[in-house]
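Usage

Read records sequentially. Each one opens with the input sequence:
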Amino acid sequence: MKPLVNEFTWSVSRNGLFQECRRAYYYQYYGSWNGWDAGAPERTRRIYLLKNLKTLDMWGGTIVHDTIAEALRRYAIKAAPITAGELQATARQKLRAGWLEAVNGEWRTSPKKTNLAELYYGNGATLPPEQTERIKAKIYDCLRAFAESALLKQIQAATYLAWQPVDKLDSFLLDETKVWCAVDFAYTDPAGALRIIDWKTGGENEDALQLQLACYAFFAADKWRAKLENLRVYGVFLRDNAREKEYPLTPEILIEARERMLQSAAGMRGFLRSPLANEPLPEEEFPLCTRERTCARCNFRELCPGAPKAPAAAPAQV
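and closes with the structure output:
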């Protein structure tokens, strides 16, 4: 098997972490590398474990996205009904399975298993009922809104041949930089426009979503040979009763987005000792974040010298 290589790539999420905290960026993309290997140094394995932590809200968002993607794939294969009750039942199973993984500490030997930050940095066993009930209600509300939305009816009315692959991680090249993205859903409407949909389980961040949807547009042009003038991109805010908002794709917006992506990639390369080998500068060369609120919710606060010292109550044995 060909050995894994830590190649330089760009993504919207990678850019977000780079802008938020350079040291967390180092941990996420360099310090954690090879941490899945039992023979890796203990600190590397610890960083990899922390990399895979999820907050309750991140976990809930993943469950919503996965449940919707699975339902759409089943519908494509055998026109299986998509109802709120069935979606919520699937999500309930995922919630139970993930919770057991977290409280039983399965992540200690399999770091990809569910590991919740609130538990890890808490008592490792329980959370206040209001927290777990809030996430469950959020997930159920999002799935109900999706199942009852006019958008789902439009999707179901389109032939499967008009669909693009559902929520599939893929990449394209932007000026020789490999860019990763996963389009939640895309289909060609009766008027011939390719509609790209991004499900959102949180609030609306217009600037971040505009960049993300522009990235999807570049991907569609590269991979699906779509004409940019024929694209329409939408954020669908499931917490807001599946409210749809179309984001513009003017030439000016696309030029600006492209420049932002390339500038971001150049900034990341500025922290490489060897850009060709994607070898980073020493850890100490990645500045620490100075925003207390950011540090307080960072996955890596257990190890980071700049974070408030609040050790995990249930440290992992790795």
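Summary fields computed downstream for this record:
- The chain is about 45% helix and 15% strand.
- The CA atoms of residues 161 and 187 lie 9 Å apart.
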